[in-house]
Amino acid sequence: MQERLQKIIARAGVASRRHAETLITSGQVAVNGRIVAELGAKADAARDHIRVSGKLLRVGPGDAETKVYIALHKPDSVVSTLRDPEGRKTIADFLRGLPGRVFPVGRLEYHASGLLLLTNDGELANRIMRAHNLRQIYLCKIDPAPGAALLPNDVRELERRASVKLARAKGMPAGWWEVRTIGASKDAFRKSLLAAGHHVDKLRRVAIANIELGPLPSGRYRHISREEISSLEHTLSKSAQRS
């Protein structure tokens, strides 16, 4: 059966569909020995020889590969990719022992830590990446400007400008805040803090939709349960209906 190349590549667990599109347009995908760089190109996974970055893709027309869903506690100063041309430590250094290959769904900044999702389920990864209204929760350590603490009026202004909900983090030392965001609004939050003279000292993501970091130690991973994935899929379906 003919399918779009990016869908076949994602199903094989090589990359998310969005990353697969980049691989195609950059000339890294070949079908039966011919480079294919058009996003609309199709192939038959059961009949055609498909190579990605020179490696033969092994995938049938069905979805026989066991799906793997991982929650990783990414440490600070680690790149959220599987390889780094600059030789820095990557998340691959913390994934030893997994039975198959997984890839990260989105990224965390180099100096940010916390929850990072990884999977070989390209379809689910694509749905997560395209969902613009998924709840995310961060713990943020804020260094106030010299001689200027964060006052209630400052908090309300930050919430308004960055579209976040801000509250003092429970059980954390002074200066730590819980930041609830929708989509990528944490960037606007950081810019608003900088504009007010405050500095984000540490940033840790602790939840994406219903998937929580919990007590998972830094540098360790856990398998996400089937129940958690079912709940996430339900949230994604509702998100798509609202878009």
Would you mind describing this structure in some detail?
Helices cover about 25% and strands about 25% of the residues. The two termini are about 30 Å apart. The longest helix is centred in the C-terminal third of the chain and has 17 residues, at about 225-240. By secondary structure, it is of the alpha+beta class. The model has no long low-confidence stretch (mean pLDDT about 85). It folds into 3 domains: about 1-55, Structural Genomics Hypothetical 15.5 Kd Protein In mrcA-pckA Intergenic Region, Chain A (Roll); about 70-130 and about 210-240, Pseudouridine synthase I, catalytic domain, N-terminal subdomain (Alpha-Beta Plaits); about 135-210, MTH889-like domain (Alpha-Beta Plaits), CATH 3.30.70.1340. Helix 1 packs across helix 2 (about 15-25) and helix 4 crosses helix 5 (about 185-195).
In short:
The chain has 243 residues and is α+β, with helices and mostly antiparallel strands. Helices cover 26% and strands 27% of the residues.
List keywords for this structure.
243 residues; alpha+beta; Structural Genomics Hypothetical 15.5 Kd Protein In mrcA-pckA Intergenic Region, Chain A; Alpha-Beta Plaits; nine-stranded mixed beta sheet; four-stranded antiparallel beta sheet; 6 helices; elongated
Please report the distance between the alpha carbons of the first and last residues: 31 Å
Uncertain runs: none
Structural category: alpha+beta
Gross CATH architecture of the largest domain: 2-Layer Sandwich
Furnish the topology, listing elements before pairings:
Layout: E1 2-4, H1 5-11, H2 17-25, E2 29-31, E3 34-35, E4 42-44, E5 50-52, E6 55-56, E7 69-74, E8 103-104, E9 113-119, H3 122-130, E10 135-143, H4 152-162, E11 165-168, E12 176-182, H5 186-195, E13 199-208, E14 211-212, E15 221-223, H6 226-242
Parallel strand pairs: 9-13
Antiparallel strand pairs: 1-4, 2-3, 2-5, 5-6, 7-9, 7-15, 8-9, 10-12, 10-13, 11-12, 13-14
Helix pairs in contact: 1-2, 4-5
